[in-house]
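JOB MANIFEST
job_type = single_chain_structure
chain_count = 1
residues = 354
[input]
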Amino acid sequence: MALARPVPFGIIGIEHGRGVMAIITGRPGPMPGMLHANGTITPVLVTPHEDRLVVRTTDAISGVPLQKIRRDASGALRRNDQPDWRVVLDEVPPDSWPTRLPALDVSRQGQRGVAIALVVGLALVGGSWLGRDRIIAAAAPLLPHSVTDPIGRAYLAQMGRRCDGGPGNAALTRLTARLLPEAGLPEPVSVTVIDTPEVNAVALPGGHVALYSGLIAQAESPEEVAAALAHEIEHIAYQHPNQSILRDSGPAVIARTLGSDAGQMADLTVLTKGDKAAESEADAGAIILLAAAAISTAGAVEFFERQSKADGGFSDSHPADAERARAYDKGKQWGTSAAMSDSDWQALRAICTG
């Protein structure tokens, strides 16, 4: 569902890369390896799938467009949009794996922070309010994951106890994988359940999504949780969280990207964008994700109809609950299947009790 975002953060659009497309021959299988990112090393399974490279860890899954994958001099897989991201495979890939991957172009890596400084600087010195929002939206995809990920992790750490029931996490990972868009996302998605009675879900910078246990407990079907998760994934796709940190803390973010303390005195907190517009974007995208996954939108309809009759709800910062129920109702389709198996649904509901 389109649940509230933390005030400091927001969302943006999918980045489309350029360059030589990799060619996949035969039917490639998964390869084990180690993912080096953000100062950590994580075991992963990597599988080429159509135009994506699917990277699985024990608690997250991401689809990276092949057009963003490069090989460095050592043969490791690198992302041309995230300099600190590197996968070292345990074995030499077979012939069925992608071939003709371009070599890593290191000359562009140092340009990202300068580009952010320029476009946000333009937002500070001129242009209409609408124009400034457009500049913020253009700058957000330039934020490196090495900057947004620690911000998202820091906020996540303040939200409460993380629920880590093994079967529940596995069930959530399967649901997340089913909902991921084929075109990939600008940042890898990591979904965490927070132990709190609040009925909510939040998209954070760095591709982090927090599902509150209160939402799972109140949900009357897995389709309701699927709709909430699809909505938050679309916030990541539109990069609304990254837009928000540029609006609220732009100079500090620029300084961190450039690796200096410069620009701390400037203030971007005056730049605002109506939450309702972003929430409507995420709702529309969630309907598309649910349709692609053959999951009914009826769960979202039932959720928002209940919210519209209850005290509170999300209407202060979101479109009216009744209006959202009607939007999801229009997205109903035939031939859908359950969002989760019965065993997965029960495991997810018990994720905080383990």
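[summary]
The chain has a mean pLDDT of 75.
Residues 31-101 form one domain.
exit_status = 0
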